[in-house]
Amino acid sequence: MQYEAGKISAKKKHREPLLRIAKRDSMPLLLSWGIRIIAVLLSLVVCAVVIYAITRMNPLKVYGAMFEGAFGSERKIWITIRDTVSLLCIGVALAPAFKMRFWNIGAEGQVLVGGIATAACMIYLGDVLPTPALFLVMIITSCLAGALWGVIPAVFKSRWGTNETLFTLMMNYVAIQITSYCVALWENPPGSNYVGIIHPQTKAGWFPSLFGQQYMLNVILVLALAVGMFIYLRSTKHGYEISVVGQSESTARYAGINVGKVFVRTMLISGAVAGLTGFIAVSGSSHTISVNTAGGRGFTAIIVAWMAKFNTMTMIIISLLLIFLEKGANEIASQFNLNDFASQIITGIILFFIIGSEFFINYQMIWRGKNKEVA
Amino acid sequence: MLTSILSLIQAAVVFGTVIMLGCIGEILSEKSGSLNLGVPGIMYIGAIAALVGVFFYEGAAENPSPLLCVVIALACGFCASFAAGLLFSFLTITLRANQNVTGLTLTIFGSGIANFFGGSLNKLAGGVGQISVSVTSDAFRTKIPELSDIPVIGPLLFQYGFMVYFAVIAAILLQFFLSKTSTGLNLRAVGENPEAADAAGIHVIRYKYLATCIGAGITGLGGVYYVMDYIKGTWANDGSIEKLGWLAVALVIFTTWKPKNGIWGAYVFGLLYWAYYYIPGLNRSSQEIFKMLPYIVTIIVLVVVSFRNKKENLGPAHLGRSYFREER
């Protein structure tokens, strides 16, 4: 009897596992997007269950209301577009940094300092300079401010290997405190702790309307940046160096690429574009500055950039999806008397599903018994 | 003068306890190689779970027992944050998702859940629009009798709720676990070099799961302490937990991944955080500049640690990467 048992267990040891996981070489583009879409649909089902559990409302009605909230009127459509390009612009800023595996979590701060620079120009120079010169100064200062904020961690990373994830994260809070300082400095009316709309009468330093649309210039600027970054990453020598550094730092070193220089140069660009986002946010949409000018988008954009695999064109779709969710959930919140943090719950659930779906794109599962067919 | 110094130290200790719990939970998780940037989200989840649990118990029971209140708060907070850690572990360890992205998503999700239910509770409570779980909060804030009446030493050492002492003990225990026990050694091996650990017969996946989930649970207790003691059993949708959560992540670097340094490090952060309040002659705008101190100090520590480039001061070698046995 004992002998038998021993035999069985010995036999068992040689049985292959029920499930093996192997890396996929590649997957057709269509299939990988199919998997992502299935993940989003599944997540919407889960969200529907959650919505029903909390509110006892018909989830389909809720989704209808969300659509209404994002695209219900021309004004709502333009606000959705404005916020989409603002998120997209930060994603574009992060793309080169993340492509070289430089974890720039500091976009929030880079956007804020760009916004502060813009607001300072509007306040101090708005009545002094003619409009074209004012815009030039605003663009230059916001780019410089953002680039400075981005390059400090990069310099330390390239010289001494300082951890950039936490450095950039801390720079956010320094930027937030500087913003609070400036808000207290510029508050209007005094004692309100708000800067208020800058130059509401003269509109000095405001984006002009194009084709009768207030936010058209934002869209054109950001799309130009997205296309430019797409070309920069795909077809230039710099872009190539970035992708080599991202694949493997040691390979890059053997190939004679100065890794530190690439870090610094790329973060200058990344920070400058993020600073420009601050310029667009202040001059092109809110016309004021507060600690909420970046509004957490610096963090959301990390997810956008990463999910789009640093492809700035794909980012357009993902930014639109996230902003649609945000606007939609805000609409539900006001229509059904919930609070608007519901949008963060829904966004979180959908993101978890998309993050999880990457596994099924990168890996294949081989069940026991199927081995022969595969081999 | 003496009273204001004493009250600064008291504020620093109470503040420090929140981030100390967050920090030692995160150290446990990072030692296994999981860089969990979901700390703020997990603290949010722990806080709201405790608040909801106690809110319904205090509402249902006629004479809520303080002891049961504390147990319910701690259990709810720990379990909910443990579950959040499980979600993070499943995505990053089993599905091998990127840890930074998953952690940030967890932060968005956690703050959404907490503020959603917190706001709803405030509505449920009606009236002034502010909920309050006074029995539990009082239980959490009970001082040590007699000892706390000693002048100077009393307020300095004994006028805190039990969680302050619990956090210190937890930090010491974790330090002992990591440096003196064989399980702790195995855990560090998993974080430094999972391939070698795997070859040595250590169950890498199990270690990573347990360390990340228990770490998340401890982090969540920081949230419980925040809501029960720091803001006295109420809820405010003002995003301050998020700030504290990121400070806890910063504190992990500050301590160079050693829980024992977390004890004084957390109080130093507390002193730096509240310093602006006690420096005379600051107006509102210059106070904002002083509030930068903890972040600047963290940056300086980060830079100094990388200058010295000592191996034991850097984080676990495999931090932030997922382990895939078949990948060589």
Keywords:
heterodimer; A: 375 residues; ABC transporter involved in vitamin B12 uptake, BtuC; 74% helix; globular; disordered N terminus; B: mainly alpha
Write the layout of secondary structure elements.
The complex is a heterodimer of chains A (375) and B (328).
Chain A: H1 2-14, E1 19-23, H2 29-55, H3 59-71, H4 74-99, H5 107-125, H6 131-160, H7 164-186, H8 216-235, H9 237-247, H10 249-254, H11 259-286, H12 297-307, H13 312-335, H14 342-362, E2 363-367, H15 371-374
Antiparallel strand pairs in A: 1-2
Chain B: H1 2-31, H2 39-60, H3 66-94, H4 99-125, H5 134-140, H6 153-158, H7 162-180, H8 182-192, H9 194-199, H10 204-230, H11 240-254, H12 259-278, H13 284-290, H14 293-308
Helix pairs in contact in B: 1-7, 1-10, 1-11, 1-12, 2-3, 2-4, 2-10, 2-11, 3-4, 3-5, 3-10, 5-10, 7-8, 7-12, 8-10, 11-12, 11-14
Protein structure class of chain A: mainly alpha
The name of the CATH topology of chain B is ABC transporter involved in vitamin B12 uptake, BtuC
Using only CA atoms, what is the Rg of chain B?
Answer: 20 Å
CATH architecture of the largest domain in chain A: Orthogonal Bundle
The domain count of chain A comes to 2
Unreliable residue runs of chain B: none
How does the major sheet of chain A shape up? Answer: 2 strands, antiparallel
Largest sheet of chain B: none
Strand content of chain B: under 5%
Number of strands of chain A: 2
Helix and strand run of chain B: HHHHHHHHHHHHHH
